[in-house]
Amino acid sequence: MNVVFRRLVSLMIVVIFAALMLAVQAAPLLPTMGAVSYAASMIGGTVEIHIMDVQTRVNHVLLKRPVEFQVDWSPDGRTLAYMPSPEGVIYTYDIFTQENAPVRNGEFFTDHITWSPNGDWLMFSTGAEIWAYNASTDTTARLHNPGDVTLLDWSPDGRYVVYTSRRRMDEGLYLLDLETRVDTLLKETEPDEFGVFAPSFSPDGCCIAYTVNGQTGFRSYRMNLRTQEITPIAPELNSSTPVYSPDGRFIALRGSPPAAQGFDIYMVHLASGRHRRLTNGPYNYSFPRWMQTYSGEQELPPPPDPWPLRGESR
C-alpha cells in the first residue's frame, strides 16, 4: 500500500512539473512594463505618433503632424518631446493634460532629441554639435563638437553619450564621457558598410544597440561595452532604430522580412531571439520608443482618433 501511495505521489509530482513547464513555454514573452510609441506615415500624408500597450495591443493616436519628426519619452513616462523637422523647435506633449507647447526657440537647427536620465535636460544635435537644454532654467549648453552627428542617446547614469558621426575620418559609433569630454571610437564603419546609426543604451548601461547600413540592407546589433562582443538582433529581418525595453529583456525596432513591402514595428526577446510583429497596417512605421514607466495598470487618455489595427481601412 505504501509503495502504491509513493508511486501515486511521484506520478502527481511529474504531472504537475510537466504542466508548469508547458505553462512557462506557452506564456507570452512580454516586458513587465510594456508600451511602445512609434510614427505612422504614408507617402505624401500626415505623420501620426501612436502608442500601443504591447500586452493588450490597445493603440492610441497621440499626435498628428504634416511632416516627419523625432520623438523621445521623459523618464517618468508622462511627457513626449518631439521635433517637427525642419522647424528646429522642440515641443513637449503631456499625454494626460494633452498640453502641447514649444520648450525652446529655433535659434539652432535641432535634431535627434533625447532626455537626460533625471528628466531635467533635453539633449539634441545641431548637425555638427551636441547641445543640451534645461527648460526649467532656460539654459542651453554645448556639450561637444564632433562634426556631422546623426543619432545619439544618454547613458542611464547620465555620464556618457553614445552617438554616431559621419565625419570624413573615423566615421562610426562613439562614446563621449561628459566629465572629461573625451570620446572613444567604439565601432568604425567597415569598407563594406555605408554607415552606423541609431545607438541606444540598455537600462543597465552595459550594452548599446545600433544599426548598420550594409550591402545586404539594414541590420541591428548590440555591443557589450565590457567585452566588446557584438551580437546580431533578429538577423532574419531588415531592421533599424533598435531600442531597449525598460526591463532590458526586449528590443523594439523597425523591421521587415526581406521579401516584404514596407516596415512594421517588431518586439524581439533577446534571450531567445524570438520576435513578434506589433503593427500590421497600411502605414509605414518607424521611430519606436518605449514609454519608460508604463505598466498595464496605468490608464491612458481616451484616444482622440481610434486607429484600426491589423490592416483594416479607416
Structural features, described:
The termini are far apart. Strands 3-2-1-24 form a 4-stranded antiparallel beta sheet, with no helix packed on it. The chain has a 4-stranded antiparallel beta sheet with strand order 4-5-6-7, with no helix packed on it. 8% of the residues lie in helices and 46% in strands. It has one helix spanning 2-26, and strands spanning 35-41, 47-53, 59-65, 69-73, 79-84, 91-94, 100-102, 111-115, 121-125, 130-134, 139-144, 149-154, 160-165, 172-177, 182-188, 193-201, 207-214, 217-224, 230-233, 238-244, 250-256, 264-269, 275-277, 284-290. The model is unreliable at 14-33 and 294-314 (pLDDT under 50). The protein has 314 residues and is mainly beta. The longest helix has 25 residues, at 2-26.
Radius of gyration: 22 Å
Largest sheet: 4 strands, antiparallel
Percent of residues in helices: under 10%
Q: Helical segment tally?
A: 1
Judged by helices, strands and strand pairing, the structural class is mainly beta
Strand proportion, as a percent range, falls in over 45%
The rounded distance between the terminal residues' Cα atoms is 69 Å
The sequence of SSEs as H and E is: HEEEEEEEEEEEEEEEEEEEEEEEE
Number of strands: 24
Low-confidence stretches are 14-33, 294-314
Spatial sequence of strands, sheet with the most strands: 3-2-1-24
The gross shape turns out to be: globular
Kindly state the mean pLDDT as a whole number? 76
